[in-house]
């Protein structure tokens, strides 16, 4: 569905565009087509032949791949201010993954042609795009290492640690995950099953390392969880 | 060791530099420091704090990571004409992997500062670099999918298929891998053990799908191997 009131929307909060002037951003906004999605709608279909660059103006999305057996693999979760779809816009090849909205979402699409013109005209913007690509390669490499060297249990520990670090350590050495992480989401991020996630979390609860409250999961001892992960990862 | 005779060496065969004029390439060559390595020497140490971009002028190298347990993971093999080390040169972060020479190798190093200046001045070169980064992301995603959804046996089949496709199909539907792939190299590429690779190859030989000759491994029926891989990958 088309957005009725795009006049109030701008690309000013798209992070990689921050290196451009407000005037250039406004020009880009006029070149975009704007679309609103409800939660859990498909934004990019891996099978589609679009090559546009998409700006995530409002909401959050999940970049996923579905295996033959129907298993969902989460590659990344992106928040307001990100852009996506740059691989196909850059190399012209098919989409490497599907993208689903997690919340109500507003997307602005820029044609690959306009995107490439921007890259050619604004070297600082091109540098931002290269940095984002480099960080994608690094994140993928880390996941390849984890998948190649850690068992599923350890990968769940590592994912829990990642979320706890994002939430921040409190004075008493704990961290609070709120809302409680969905088992299926964690499983999809570390390539295992919901059942394994549930079992590992139960084991950790029995050891007193995590505690489930009504609306939050408390990591009781962040330092101990860090030790467990570092032992196997060798960080 | 320093290269004595660099006068005969140029960057003319470095593929991503092909978009630049011969004069610019010669300028870059003069800014580089040149080094020769014997086979199996370390070119980039993952722990090092260098940020240079490296041109692979002669020879071939392997991009690897060593796990805590000492297991070797091959991320990529690169041939003459490639460049490497671009992640750190772009984002200034530490090296993501180590690089070892496979053969006698000549490397030309360009400082990150000069590299970034080149990117800013030559948008077509920046585009080449973005395409290369995009292909690294795609290859990593494929490996994440394989690691997440295929068993070790199927990953060995898939690696065999990849090598057979590189070698090319012959009129009789076979493909010839020459020299015979080293089990440890295959294991390192698909994150399994040498023993698993040996067992899978033996199984395939028993089924008549591969045949070991004195100096080559013959994939007897490429189409059948393709079917086996497509069945599990869903390509």
UniProtKB/TrEMBL annotation, chains A, B:
Listed GO CC annotations: cytosol
GO molecular function terms attached to this record: DNA binding; DNA-binding transcription factor activity; kinase activity
Q: InterPro entries in the record, alphabetically?
A: cNMP-bd_dom (IPR000595), cNMP-bd_dom_sf (IPR018490), Env_Response_Regulators (IPR050397), HTH_CRP (IPR012318), RmlC-like_jellyroll (IPR014710), WH-like_DNA-bd_sf (IPR036388), WH_DNA-bd_sf (IPR036390)
Lineage top rank: taxon:
Bacteria
**Entries under CDD domains matching the protein:** CAP_ED (cd00038)
* Ranges of residues in domain HTH crp-type: 150-223
| Record keywords | DNA-binding, Kinase, Transcription, Transcription regulation, Transferase
Domain Cyclic nucleotide-binding: from-to ranges: 16-136
Q: Which SMART domains match?
A: cNMP (SM00100), HTH_CRP (SM00419)
What the entry lists under Pfam families is as follows: cNMP_binding (PF00027), HTH_Crp_2 (PF13545)
- Name listed for the protein in its UniProt record: cAMP-binding domain of CRP or a regulatory subunit of cAMP-dependent protein kinases
Q: What species is this protein from? A: Insolitispirillum peregrinum
